[in-house]
Records
---
Amino acid sequence: MAVWRVVLLLLLTLAVGVGWGYLWWGREATRLTREIAEARTAAGGPHEYRAEGVIRAVLPEMNIVVITHDEITGYMPAMTMGFRAASPKIYETVDVGDAVRFTLRGTPPNLALVAVEKVTSQ
Ligand SMILES: [Cu+2]
């Protein structure tokens, strides 16, 4: 076999190999991207939760509002805990003892209180 034929054959083999490698990698990358997106959706990503509770303490200096809350569906059972307020305006709208309906937003467990509205008792 002529030398140029051997060289050509080697180059072709190499080209095919690299080509398949790229194709395989491309498929892998696509699959990984999809899996990461699915895992993010399942495990976390920004969520929004709504619940009701009673304000127990308002601590602007600690950036915390303590609320005894009902069960937060899909997140946590009823308990008393502190929530970080997303904005200082939150503190102006609530007082200790208020029954409230509130909204949490963020990626669990890093959630912030983004809205609080008083529930008027009938
Ligand atoms: Cu809680």
Note: The first strand starts at residue 47 and ends at 59.
---
Amino acid sequence: MLSTVALFRQRAETYVSRVSLRPVIPKASAHLRPATEHDVGFVTDVYVVTLRAQGRLARDFDEGAFRDRFVAQTFREVEGDVPDSTTYVIEIDGERAGRLRVVRGPDSLEIAGIQLLPAHQGKGNGTYLIEQLVVEAHDAGKPARVRAGRDNPRALGLYRRLGFTEVGTDDDEIILESAPRTQADGTEAEASFSRGP
Ligand SMILES: CC(C)(COP(=O)(O)OP(=O)(O)OC[C@H]1O[C@@H](n2cnc3c(N)ncnc32)[C@H](O)[C@@H]1OP(=O)(O)O)[C@@H](O)C(=O)NCCC(=O)NCCS
């Protein structure tokens, strides 16, 4: 069976061959742009706000100290001082809506953090962005990896629905991976996603 991505590509190609309009492809409102130093405060807010909304902050959470560390680390990321790492602002309808960090290493593409502000959650944008990253990883012949907290069952459920499987654990986190499938002829198969109901 053709994957969703292959179906859209096929449909787009068919459409282009018949008419000269742009192909019909899924339109997601989410847009990524690399974060700059002007976004450091915003991405820090997103991180803290989403954790708080999930009820995942420890009772003795020291927000000031945490923010100081997070801001310093994010500055290093946006200034290019962290190898292979890109921090993005997720924009939805032109507004800043979330944070995404991707580490494109030699052997894997790691989704090293994705947070959408609560008002933007549950509308398909996370699925769309994660799927794009999985396709990018598989096209490069690499697995996509992600870590999710054991205390974050909804995120774990999302990754599992998108075809990620558990490959390890690390303290309070589960490491999941979506490996490129190798076909009988040795070439990489198209990424596919198994969606839940
Ligand atoms: C996880 C997240 C990026 C998914 O993006 P999204 O656009 O909300 O997700 P989609 O609408 O594409 O898909 C819905 C699924 O996302 C997951 N999800 C939705 N809200 C969530 C939340 N607050 N926390 C964790 N997962 C959530 C669930 O699996 C949901 O399916 P369900 O309703 O059947 O449980 C986003 O919800 C988020 O930022 N959550 C808070 C931060 C977080 O947990 N990040 C993941 C760290 S590994």
Note: The chain is about 35% helix and 25% strand.
